[in-house]
């Protein structure tokens, strides 16, 4: 079984919040034809998309052609809308969460859903997380690597992670609003350099702040193979050893990093082998970033090409690990 953990979706009929709330910072879906559209922000084309991004039927066609049994659906990060007034961002979250839940309900054998929450207000975010998990039946929450420039170790976010651990809610962390954006406009470096670096900051923040020590049962998965985080981990350990006066944890960063999960979207079997050796094959989850330009085609290609994986390891990475992370019992949930 192949489970593509990292895919994005948006409602075809998403409301025009730019018109409703009077700000052109909202992403707006403008149709260019029956099977294509532009995501517009501030009057500019943010991304050209096809019906793959909103049509479950088109997705299923692609899944069948590429050998994918189940997709895990998550919102497009640009729709997080952390910058907006909380009541407006909450409405955006609800529209997407309802859409994803309804899509899963329509095709329960092919999709599993993740929700989004307005983390600029933790109390409201927890309320929507509660609704996502306990009312809509979604299996986890996707959040960004920072909230309006604040790292995830800001004290105001602690209660969110506390409740996620208490309720057993898996958290998928995806880069957005990358650091150093003013230096990255050329060559699309925001996607190839900025996002991996942004993810490393988020992962290191959760560790060095003591959040992962305080909430040891918290389940967290990082997109894009964890970005550059796995490769700078020895340097983080060296910093922990060099500056004991700054320590907020009882163990070095590498100890807590073993609690993390990582998707497999790093394109290179050598990198997959490294992740397996450092963190264990149980912590690697197949993900493709469907349906966007940098996605892996077919999903799981890098896993197929990674040598010296035992059959049971390969099967786990391609499917079982995602279901375990999301607390899905395949025998009960998927026929």
From TrEMBL:
Keywords linked to the UniProt accession: Decarboxylase, Lyase, Metal-binding, Zinc
Record Gene3D superfamilies: Metal-dependent hydrolases (3.20.20.140)
Single GO term (MF): hydrolase activity
Alphabetical list of SUPFAM superfamilies matching this protein: Metallo-dependent hydrolases
Domain Amidohydrolase-related: 3-326
Enzyme Commission identifier(s): 4.1.1.45
Pathway of action: Secondary metabolite metabolism; quinolate metabolism
Top EC class of this enzyme: lyase
Pfam families on file: Amidohydro_2
Protein name: 2-amino-3-carboxymuconate-6-semialdehyde decarboxylase
Organism of origin: Virgibacillus salinus
